[in-house]
Amino acid sequence: MKTRVTVYNYRDFDEKKWFDYFGKELDIEIIACPDSPTLENASLAEGSQCIDIITTILDKELIEKFYEYGVRYITTRTIGYDHIDVKAAKACGMKVANAPYGPDGVADYTLMLMLMSIRKMKCIMQRNVVQDYTLKGIQGKELKDFTVAVIGTGRIGRTVIRDLSGFGCKILAYDIYENEEVKEYATYVDEETIWKEADMITFHAPLTEKNFHMINQDTIAKMKEGVVVINTARGGLIDSKALIDGIESGKIGAAGLDVVEDEFSLYYYDRKSDILPNRDLAILKSFPNVTVSHHMAFYTDNYAKTVVGDSLRGCKCYVNGLEDSSIKNPYEV
Question: What integer pLDDT is reported at residue 132 of this predicted model?
Fold first, then answer.
């Protein structure tokens, strides 16, 4: 059966060449839409067995509309899938899959945010712009003196731990599933030990109902004074208002955030002339000890090729009933 895929948030500048390449290689017809999926443009998927999206909201109403048009498989060009109402999809009998990319890009970015946070790089760069070359207030710390807690020891978390090991810091790890590879560099501990002992906490876990707002007022109260928080996973892992309170009180010494709560309507659009409906983001960006980027830790040369290829292979596998062993299996949720 000919595979037909409607691709939303299709980008000419980095993805087109790979959609062209893998579309031809896998004999897939691509219907390209540069916009996010909506009730108005869902009709573009009529006749497609699959849709291919990124981190845009796919709620129950939209999923049911796609089902009406014949879509039976949703793939997201992301590791996370909390933007998709998975329960609604399953209720319709639709499959949902993600497309994990290599872990090194996010791991590199995480280390960068760690170093920027403890070396006060945001302040240094701001001063440099106005030719303020003074030293007061920008004295940094060294990573070797930190106890770093890594929450989530999947592919990315394990890579962060491996890279951290070269800095000489003490590494703690937390995950509901322990990994033997991690134990070479880190010690698994419980949550309470993380809050009590860590000088820096970095997140590499998927967002679930159980870990939503894992960092909140109660957990922050248990942390060390001046703890550094890094998040390149999902914004909902941290209660933004509690984080703001912690920063203002000095309990949290610095934060490096590639993700924030309620970001889906913001990224990846040009909103420079808009009043944004996210007051917490505006407050976080205003702090001199908080670095915020727009959910792009994954964004490397290798990313675009990998996610496009894997998402389309998943579609091909679904349409073919996973019978073609030469095609990589999709990462089903």
Answer: 98
The pLDDT of residue 325 is: 42
Is 295 a known active-site residue?
yes
pTM of the complete model? 0.90
- Comparing CA positions, the residue from 195, 235, 238 lying closest to residue 214 is 238
Using the CB atoms, write b or e for 69-78: b if 16+ within 10 Å. Answer: eebbbbbbbb
- Regions of the chain with pLDDT less than 70: 323-333
Backbone angles phi, psi at 120, to 5 degrees: 55, 45
Catalytic member of 15, 234, 261, 313: 234
**pLDDT on residue 332:** 57
- Confirm whether 234 is a catalytic residue: yes
Choose, from 295, 313, 323, 332, the residue flagged as catalytic: 295
Domains of the chain: residue spans and CATH:
3-101+300-332 (3.40.50.720), 104-292 (3.40.50.720)
